[in-house]
Write a structure and sequence with these properties.
Number of strands: 4
Strand order of the largest sheet: 1-2
Radius of gyration: 22 Å
Shape: globular
Helix content: 55-70%
Order of helices and strands: HHHHEEHHHHHHHHHEEHH
Mean pLDDT: 92
Number of helices: 15
Largest sheet: 2 strands, antiparallel
Structural class: mainly alpha
Strand content: under 5%
């Protein structure tokens, strides 16, 4: 087998992802104890555990830990219980009554208890049957890495077969933050890598049309489904991805592509719509769809969104651990400078339509974190994180 630049990149990414997984101390990734308990719920044969509302003692404890009222209301809505044996209990968690889980078993609560189950299925299968918390965590991490890193490698393969501009785009998007989240128990890794594969598949479709290989069509379908179902913002990202492709192609080329690939395109569209319906159904049945939107007070909301902007950009490039280890600022700034260089190159090489779509997409991508926080996520009481967007 000939060693190409694509294969070398794929091998490098795989090694880096494994290194991140092994170097991150157990349960020292964002919300990893909660995600571990979510996977444990599924490993025990239940997609959704019973509701476990906060009792007065729990509210006092959270308040003492610095949790604001908005944050408490947000996590209480998503809290679900799971029976955990002492041997499988993660650190930093207690039984719902507040006592330590040190013998026998008890009900513990996870504030990610109603999240979409897709990202937890393989980790749950990997950890089922294990009797110790550390073993269960490493197996769940390995399963998460297989899923997320697999989609990252698919994105690289779709950009091929030779190393070119498409592969450079994947490299720019697969930031150190993305690699870090592929190797921990967290749905963000799957959402980010799945969406990157979906974008690559759409770009390949726009380039090859009806000459797109059969495996590329399967990659398009599977990555689209994963993007929609992995986490809360997935449907929005998938719709934006498709809109960008249609805008790049234009009306005439889009119609021509549909006529040339009608059967396969109908399968893709139907599957994605079914996934969207499943997303909404799960959200309604589980209660996961409880975000609200408010445009008042307008000025204060926008200011709050702008205050989150710098940290979000920095976090999109390099934030690790329990969001307490950062890539040095010069390296983050250099990464964004390289991305800006790619945008300028695209402006220079692209046609009139491509330049217009690129400009609108870039402005929308930069505005989205500000507007999303200003009008929705600020109501949760939590701050923005780069992995969300």
């Amino acid at each position: 087998m000939r060693i190409t630049g694509i294969r070398l990149l794929a091998g490098g990414y795989l090694l880096l992802a494994v290194a991140w997984m092994l170097a991150t101390p157990p349960f020292q990734a964002p919300d990893e104890p909660a995600h571990y308990l979510r996977a444990l719920t599924i490993a025990q044969g239940s997609l959704l555990g019973p509701r476990e509302p906060l009792d007065p003692v729990g509210r006092v404890a959270l308040a003492a830990g610095g949790w604001q009222a908005e944050e408490q209301r947000w996590i209480e809505h998503d809290r679900r219980g799971v029976r955990v044996s002492a041997a499988l209990a993660p650190p930093y968690t207690t039984c719902v009554g507040g006592e330590a889980d040190i013998r026998g078993s008890c009900i513990e609560a996870t504030y990610t208890g109603d999240y979409s189950p897709l990202a937890y299925l393989l980790p749950a299968a990997a950890m089922s049957g294990t009797g110790h918390v550390t073993t269960a965590l490493w197996l769940a991490r390995a399963a998460s890495l297989i899923l997320a890193c697999g989609f990252l490698l698919v994105a690289l393969a779709l950009s091929g077969p030779e190393l070119g501009w498409s592969a450079i785009g994947v490299v720019a998007a697969a930031t150190p933050t993305v690699l870090f989240f592929t190797g921990v128990v967290n749905p963000s890794g799957l959402e980010l890598s799945g969406n990157l594969a979906f974008l690559s598949a759409l770009a390949r479709l726009g380039r090859d049309g009806d000459a797109m290989p059969a495996w590329g069509w399967w990659a398009l379908i599977v990555s689209g489904v994963v993007t929609i179902l992995a986490w809360q913002l997935g449907p929005l990202f998938a719709c934006a991805d498709v809109a960008v492709l249609v805008a790049l192609l234009g009306r005439a080329r889009t119609r021509g592509l549909w006529r040339a690939t009608r059967g396969r395109m109908a399968t893709v569209v139907g599957t994605l719509l079914a996934s969207l319906a499943l997303f909404v159904l799960w959200g309604e049945l589980s209660g996961a769809l409880h975000s609200t939107v408010s445009f008042t007070p307008l000025g204060a909301a926008l200011q709050a969104g702008l205050r989150q902007f710098g940290g979000t950009l920095r976090g999109a490039i390099g934030v690790f651990g329990w969001l307490n280890v950062w890539l040095p600022d010069p390296l983050s700034q250099l990464w964004w400078a390289l991305v800006a260089g790619l945008l300028l190159a695209a402006v220079a090489l692209g046609g009139r339509r491509e330049r217009a779509v690129l400009g609108i997409t870039a402005v929308g991508a930069l505005a989205f974190p500000v507007l999303f926080f200003a009008f929705s996520y600020r109501l949760s009481g939590f701050g923005m994180q780069g992995r969300y967007v």
